[in-house]
User: What shape does this take?
Amino acid sequence: MMSERQRKFRENYKSNISPFYNGLLHISVMYGVGIAAIYYCVSRLNNPTWEWLLAIPVFLAGNFIEWFMHRFVMHRRIDVYALRAIYERHTREHHQYFTDNEPTIDTMREFRIVFFPWRVLITLGVFGTMFGFLASRVLNLNAGYILFTTMVVQYLIYESFHYCCHVHENWFVRNVPFINTIRRHHTAHHNQGIMMKYNMNLTLPITDWLMGSSDLRRGLLGHLFNGYSEKHVKEELRPLIARFKMDDSRVTLDGPQLTREEERVMTA
Assistant: This one.
């Protein structure tokens, strides 16, 4: 059930969305540019063999980067213009709009609060080109194209999985492997008691498992195929999660106000 605090924030946020914003255009450009970039790179490949294996370390590196950016930029205010803007948009807007009580959207205008702005895709293109060029020089052209392709694919997976976390419950999100896992994982992240430290991954919860910042206590395979199960949620976190699920009186725009005891159990 949505709290009065969350309801008022949503109403205010939606009233301030530009009348020129179009959710369908937003995602059409994002996916269109991403798919076009993938097609371009794949069409330039020249009988790649071992180069495809580069996708594994690039994906794992990307998994760590998404975790790092989420934990230390999106949830930590750094007083530098671009980084501060990321924090404001994520902690002060996204996490006020969505909670584990009500994490879903109803309209395409709300895509504004779910998907990254286009400048993130531009930034990805710049860094992907830089790293791809470096790989093409150190290894070969196939390596450069595959590196760039992997980065774009991972970004589109991130956005798609995130969208699946914020749509209404349906057969697809409940039953498709990995998607059902990340939906539960991300919904738990939106609990306002633990949101600053736990469940930072949004593709696969690999780095969360490695760094101990998952709300689950189980192995890597258990994390990947956990689905909707709450069986393995860490016992020490359960009271904190339940408390903030019922009461948001100690929640601010910058996160929860925790007691010393609550901070003690936040060991991630």
About this structure: The two ends are 28 Å apart (CA to CA). The mean pLDDT is 96.
